[in-house]
Structures are given as C-alpha cells and as structure tokens.
Write a structure and sequence with these properties.
alpha+beta; Rossmann fold; D-amino Acid Aminotransferase, Chain A, domain 1; Dna Ligase, domain 1; six-stranded antiparallel β-sheet; 12 helices
Length: 350
C-alpha cells in the first residue's frame, strides 16, 4: 500500500474548484507513501494536469455524459502505461459512471471505495426529503422543478428568498421570480433538468467531511464552519469546530444509511431555532478536504487504506480552530505540454 499507485479525478481549479488536487495533496504528504499519483482531467486546461509536484502521469478522460464504457476504455488505456492500484473519483457527475464499471476495474485489480448505487440514489438532491426522514435530520422545504412553467406554483410553495440549485453543482439565492427564472435558465443550460428549489433558512453554514465504512459507521469525520461563502454557495474560508450535536447527527446518518466511502454533509444552523438542517449530501470529498488533514485526520489516505483492504480504527480526534483560506496560484506551462494533452491525451513527468 505504501507504494501503491493512486489515481484521482477532478483537477479543474476554477472559482468552484474540484477536489482532486486537494485529495492528492493529502496523500502526497503521507511520509510513508512511496507510490505515484496519477491525475485524470476532463479538459486540457484543468490546472491539476500540470501540477508536477503531485502527479507523475496525467491523462484526459471523456466527459461524464459519454458514459461508463468510454470511461473504462480510457482508464484501462492509462492502466496499460502505468498500472493503477486505486482510483478515487471526486466529482458528483462521474460517480454513477464509476459504479457502472466498478466490477470491470476490479478484474484489473484497480480498487475503489464507493457508495452503492442505491445509496447514491437515496442521497441525491431530488430525494433529500425522504433521506432526511430516514436519518432523522430535518431539511428545508424543497421543490423539484421539472418544467419552467411550474415556477409560479413552486415559488408560492417555497417563498422568497429561495435557493435555486443545479442537479449536480451550483446554488444561487433568488429574491424574486425574475432572478429565479434567470438562475434556472443558467443551470439547465449547464446541467439540465430537474432544478431544485430550496427554502432559504437564515443561519450559519457547516460542513462535515467523512468516510463511511459501509457497515453503519464512519472511520473519520471533521466538522467545519464556513467563514466566507462565494456567490455559488461554496466555502472559500472555514474553521474546524467541535459540536456534539453535529457528531450525533453524523452517527445517525451513517447508522441509517450504511454509507460506504467519502462524503460531505452540508448543513445550516437555523438562526432562530438553533436546529441543524440538512441542505445536501455530496457523494465525494469536498474541495476543502486538506483542512481535515491539516487538523489531524487524513481522510483521503484512510480511503486509500480502506480500498486496499486494510482495517481502520475509527478516529474523531482533530484540532479545532484550524482555518483554511483559499487562494489562487497560476500554473505555468509551455505550449508543447498543452499540445501533448490535446493530441496524445496525456503527459508523463518522469
């Protein structure tokens, strides 16, 4: 395992960065690890493709809309050049595809540690209300919008302000029908229908990053309070905190779902009732996952161990008051590297 070759997806670094670079950073900093990092991107300008400190080989994958068959073909093509031991997908939109090829990957001794399809369906944004009932965590009122002409009915039910959420990514606060309509158009153009309309709850936002063992418990979890939030609802700065209510909530979630693999719970603490409400469940590591490692629990590395078949003891001990504050750094590359990614579909850095 200490010499395992680990692949990570999700290498874009925009104003809503993918988690892949942070996940590999966590693994790379494990002193005992002497393996290699393999990066998988979806666009030739994904910044992580050119981060030589973390990735020894990088490859392009077909967009998730192409399906599992083409995903498998490209992973096995990379596997022929650099045999993979483990791969950690980090994007919501690709998890279903990875589940569809999980058995095929196992035949080539490429391991994953993912939720089941049933768990993924259960945790989707369109099923959040049902999930909240199952895990005994309240959720804001939601309306699953499948047709734009239902917006008027939905707005009467949800009220303004409301959050307009894409099926996979992005959330915008709408204060009236005009804003809601604009956001819906923007999201459906990118992600399609349905769009989720969610009741606005005034309060502070919290996130929990964790890894479930698939047996009704989790092997590690870190709680973070958002300090600064972007216009897309993403945390740009946050601080580790400890709240027994959040850990009790986390216990209920895993006990009820038997979730397997990484996830992020997004919650809000109602300003008036002081109650935590579940906003959404993300079936992968968050982009801020390095904060968990900095606080003392290296969740990506624990996932590598679990995928390798190693037994892990549960840990909840981490430092509180550790802050992350995201910044932007340019990655410099030459035109030959970009050409190689576009024409050959990959790059080698050794």
């Amino acid at each position: 395992m200490n010499r395992s070759i680990v692949g990570v997806t999700g290498l874009n670094s925009t104003d809503s960065p993918a988690p892949g670079i942070s996940v590999m950073r966590c693994i790379k900093e494990v002193r005992a690890w002497r393996g290699k990092g393999i990066g998988f991107g979806y666009d030739s300008l994904d910044a992580g493709l050119y981060v030589k400190d973390y990735f020894r080989h990088v490859y392009l994958l077909p967009y998730p809309s192409e399906g599992g068959v083409y995903l498998l073909k490209n992973i096995l093509k990379a596997h022929e050049k650099t045999p993979l031991d483990i791969i950690i997908p980090t994007l919501d939109s690709e998890i279903y595809n990875f589940l569809s090829i999980e058995d095929d990957l196992n035949k080539y001794s490429i391991r994953t540690f993912l939720p089941t399809k049933e768990q993924l369906d259960e945790a989707s944004k369109v099923n959040l209300n049902k999930l909240g009932d199952k895990v005994s965590i309240p959720v804001p009122r939601n309306y699953i919008l499948t047709k734009i002409d239902k917006l008027g009915i939905a707005s009467e039910e949800i009220g303004f302000p409301m959050f307009v959420k894409g099926l996979f990514y992005e959330a915008y606060k709408a204060n009236n029908l005009s804003e809601a309509s604009d956001f819906i158009f923007r999201l459906t153009k990118k992600w399609g229908m349905p769009v989720i309309l969610q009741e606005y709850i005034e309060g502070e936002e919290y996130n929990i990053a964790a890894v479930g063992d698939g047996k009704g418990d989790y092997i590690g979890a870190v709680c973070m309070k958002k300090l600064f939030i972007t216009d897309k609802g993403k945390a740009w700065s946050g601080v580790t905190i400890r709240d027994n209510a959040l850990f009790e909530l986390t216990e209920r979630f895993f006990s009820a779902t038997h979730w397997r693999g990484p996830l992020e719970l997004e919650l809000i603490k109602d300003k008036h009732s002081k109650e935590y409400l579940l906003l959404e469940v993300n079936p992968r590591f968050p982009a801020w996952i390095y904060l968990a490692k900095a606080a003392g629990i290296n969740l990506p590395w624990l996932t590598v161990k679990l995928a390798s078949g190693e037994k892990i003891k549960k840990t909840t001990n981490y430092k509180i008051g550790i802050i992350f504050n995201r910044y932007v750094e340019e990655v410099i590359l030459n035109i030959e590297s970009l050409d190689a990614i576009n024409t050959k579909g990959g790059l080698d850095y050794e």
